[in-house]
C-alpha cells in the first residue's frame, strides 16, 4: 500500500525557496494547491537540503527556520544542520548520528 | 580563532539533557505520583527522541517572530475594515462556532500539557510538553484577539467562555477535553498528542483555514496558520510518544491500543462539527468533508498505521465505520442545528440551490437520495410560514454528548440506538464506538454532565426555553435563529448597500 510522506507550507514568499528546493531534489513529488497553503506529497520520503535552499535564497539558511512556514506533515521526521526530512522508510534517508 | 560551533544535535543534547536530577529529600515516586497507575512501563526515559531538537532559546525566537507577523495582519485587517470584505455575512457563524467550541479547548490543551510537562518523569518529553503547553495558550490568546474584532459587529461571540461551560452542543468538545485531562498523563499524551494532534487535527485546521482564506477572512487565516505552524512540532511529539511507549515495554501495547481506539472515536465525533462547518457553513466551500477525510484520514492515517504495525499496533477500531459515516455526518449534524436553531449561539440556514448542487456533486451516493429531499421539504414549510423547530429536548449520547440523531451503519433511514446497564441505570449511546468507551470506564462516564439531563434536573435556570437561554447568556432574537431576519443579516446588507453607494 502507498505511504505518502507529506509537507504542507504556507503559500507565501518565505516558503517559496523551500518549495522550489523540494521540487528540485525530490523527483515525483505531487503538489496540491489549496487556498493559502500548498501540500507536497511523495511516496516514501521528502528531503530538504540546506544547500539547495541557500542557492535559491542567496543567504545562509538554517533548517530550523522551517518552523516559521511548515503547517503540517506526515512521516517520521529528522533534522540536522544540513537537511530536514520526513520519511516512512527504515532507516530514514539520513542518519540520526 | 573562535571555537567550532556545536552542531544542532550536540546543542540540543546540551540544552535539554542533564537538567533533571534524582530527588533525595523526597522519593521520586512521591515527586511524580501519576506516571505509574495507568500501567505503562518505562525502562529508560533517556531513550526519548525529539527529532525537532528545538531548544528553549530557539523556541522563544521563532514564536516571537510568528507573533510579530500575526499581529501585523490583525492590525491591518482592523484598520481596513476587513470584516466587510468577507464572502458573505453567513461566514461569521464559522467564527462563532470556532471561538465558542474550539478556542476554550486550546486552553484545556494548555492546561493538559502543563500537567503532562510536570508529571512525566523524563526530561525530554517534559520539555516538549511544556513548549506545547505554551503554544496552546498562545493559540487561545491569538484566537480571542483576532475574533474580538468580529465581536464589534456580529452577535453570538461575546459570551464564548460562559457558553462553553453550559451550552448543549459545546459540551461535546468540552467533555472531550475534560475526559482527556482527568485521565493520567500517558493517556492524555496519547489522546491529545497522538490521536488528536497527529491523526485528526489536520482535519480541523487545514480545511478551516483554507476556508477562511477562500472566504476573504485574512485575519483568521493568519491566526489559524500561525497556530498550525506549531502543529508540525505537536504532531511530532504525538508520534514520538506512541513510538516511545511501544518501544519501552511489550505490556504497553494493549493499553496504548485501547487508548488509540477510544480517542480516535472520541475525536471523530467532535470533528463532526467541523464536517458541518465545511459542507454547510462556508459560503464558498473549499473541499467537502468526505474529501478531507480521504486525504487526512484514509491516506495519511493509512501511511501512519502501516508504519506503526511493526510494533503490533493496528488501526483504530471502527475506523471503517467512521469512513462510511463521512458520507452522512455533515448532513445529519446541520439538520440537528437547523431543528434546534432557537437554542444555538449561531445562525442556521437552508443551503441555496447552487450550494445543494455542490453537495450533490460531492456526495453522489447520499445527498440527493437522503438529504436533499429533507432540505427541500423544510424549505417549502418555511415558505408557508411553518418553519420547522424541534421543541422536544433530545436524548443525548452518554459518551460523546451529541443528540442521538445519527443513523445505523449501512442504513441511513434508521436512527442508531445502543444502551448499557450500570448500577441499576440505563445509559444510551449513539454508536457502538461510544458504547464501548462507556463499557470500559462506566464509573467515569456515568458522571457525565449531560446538558439535557441538567435542564430536566432544574440546574440550568428553569424549565422554559427563555430561562435556559438566559442561563446560557444567549440573546434571544440576536444570537440564535435563522440568518435570514437576523441583526447580522441586516448589518451585512447595510454594508453591501454602502459599498454600492461608494462605487457610484
Ligand atoms: Fe492548539
Ligand atoms: Fe456518541
UniProtKB/TrEMBL annotation, chain A:
This is Phenol hydroxylase P2 protein. Belongs to the TmoD/XamoD family. InterPro entries: MOase_MmoB_DmpM, mOase_MmoB_DmpM_sf. It comes from Xanthobacter agilis. It holds the Pfam family MmoB_DmpM.
Amino acid at each position: 500500500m502507498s505511504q505518502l510522506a507529506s509537507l504542507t507550507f504556507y503559500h507565501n514568499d518565505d516558503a517559496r525557496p523551500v518549495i522550489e528546493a523540494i521540487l528540485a531534489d525530490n523527483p515525483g513529488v505531487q503538489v496540491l494547491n489549496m487556498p493559502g497553503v500548498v501540500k507536497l506529497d511523495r511516496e516514501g520520503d521528502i528531503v530538504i537540503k540546506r544547500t539547495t535552499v541557500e542557492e535559491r535564497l542567496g543567504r545562509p539558511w538554517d533548517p530550523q527556520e522551517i518552523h516559521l512556514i511548515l503547517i503540517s506533515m506526515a512521516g517520521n521526521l529528522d533534522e540536522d544542520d544540513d537537511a530536514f526530512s520526513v520519511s516512512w522508510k527504515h532507516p530514514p534517508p539520513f542518519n540520526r548520528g | 580563532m573562535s571555537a567550532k560551533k556545536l552542531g544542532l544535535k550536540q546543542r540540543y543534547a546540551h540544552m535539554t539533557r542533564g537538567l533533571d536530577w534524582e530527588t533525595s529529600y523526597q522519593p521520586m515516586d512521591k515527586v511524580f505520583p501519576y506516571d505509574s497507575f495507568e500501567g505503562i512501563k518505562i525502562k529508560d526515559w533517556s531513550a526519548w527522541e525529539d527529532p525537532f531538537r528545538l531548544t528553549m532559546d530557539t523556541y522563544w525566537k521563532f514564536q516571537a517572530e510568528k507573533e510579530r507577523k500575526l499581529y501585523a495582519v490583525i492590525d491591518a485587517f482592523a484598520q481596513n475594515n476587513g470584516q466587510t470584505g468577507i464572502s458573505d455575512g453567513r461566514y461569521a457563524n464559522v467564527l462563532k462556532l470556532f471561538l465558542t467550541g474550539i478556542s476554550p479547548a486550546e486552553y484545556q490543551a494548555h492546561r493538559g500539557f502543563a500537567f503532562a510537562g510536570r508529571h512525566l518523569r523524563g526530561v525530554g518529553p517534559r520539555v516538549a510538553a511544556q513548549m506545547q503547553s505554551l503554544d496552546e495558550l498562545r493559540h487561545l490568546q491569538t484566537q480571542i484577539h483576532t475574533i474580538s474584532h468580529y465581536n464589534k459587529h456580529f452577535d453570538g461571540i461575546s459570551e464564548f467562555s460562559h457558553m462553553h461551560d453550559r451550552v448543549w452542543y459545546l459540551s461535546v468538545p468540552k467533555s472531550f477535553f475534560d475526559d482527556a485531562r482527568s485521565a493520567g498523563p500517558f493517556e492524555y499524551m496519547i489522546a491529545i498528542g497522538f490521536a488528536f494532534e497527529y491523526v485528526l487535527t489536520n482535519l480541523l485546521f487545514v480545511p478551516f483555514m483554507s476556508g477562511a482564506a477562500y472566504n476573504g477572512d485574512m485575519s483568521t487565516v493568519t491566526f489559524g496558520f500561525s497556530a498550525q505552524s506549531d502543529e508540525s512540532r505537536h504532531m511530532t511529539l504525538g508520534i514520538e510518544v506512541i513510538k516511545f511507549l511501544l518501544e519501552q515495554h511489550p505490556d504497553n501495547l494493549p493499553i496504548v491500543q485501547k487508548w488509540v481506539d477510544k480517542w480516535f472515536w472520541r475525536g471523530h465525533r467532535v470533528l463532526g462539527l467541523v464536517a458541518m462547518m465545511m459542507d454547510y457553513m462556508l459560503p464558498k466551500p473549499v473541499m467537502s468533508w468526505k474529501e478531507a477525510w480521504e486525504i487526512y484520514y484514509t491516506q495519511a492515517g493509512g501511511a501512519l498505521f502501516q508504519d506503526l504495525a511493526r510494533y503490533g499496533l493496528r488501526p483504530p477500531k471502527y475506523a471503517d465505520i467512521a469512513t462510511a459515516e463521512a458520507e452522512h455526518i455533515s448532513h445529519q449534524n446541520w439538520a440537528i442545528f437547523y431543528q434546534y436553531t432557537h437554542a444555538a449561539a449561531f445562525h442556521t440556514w437552508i443551503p441555496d440551490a447552487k450550494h445543494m448542487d455542490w453537495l450533490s456533486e460531492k456526495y453522489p451516493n447520499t445527498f440527493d437520495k437522503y438529504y436533499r429531499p429533507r432540505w427541500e421539504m423544510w424549505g417549502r414549510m418555511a415558505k408557508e410560514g411553518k418553519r420547522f423547530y424541534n421543541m422536544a429536548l433530545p436524548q443525548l449520547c452518554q459518551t460523546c454528548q451529541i443528540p442521538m440523531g445519527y443513523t445505523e451503519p449501512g442504513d441511513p433511514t434508521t436512527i442508531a440506538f445502543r444502551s448499557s446497564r450500570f448500577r441499576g441505570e440505563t445509559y444510551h449511546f449513539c454508536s457502538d464506538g461510544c458504547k464501548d468507551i462507556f463499557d470500559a470506564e462506566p464509573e467515569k462516564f456515568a458522571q457525565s454532565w449531560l446538558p439535557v439531563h441538567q435542564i430536566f434536573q432544574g440546574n440550568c435556570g428553569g424549565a422554559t426555553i427563555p430561562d435556559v437561554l438566559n442561563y446560557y447568556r444567549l440573546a434571544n432574537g440576536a444570537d440564535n435563529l435563522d440568518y435570514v431576519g437576523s441583526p447580522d443579516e441586516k448589518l451585512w446588507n447595510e454594508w453591501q448597500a454602502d459599498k454600492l453607494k461608494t462605487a457610484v
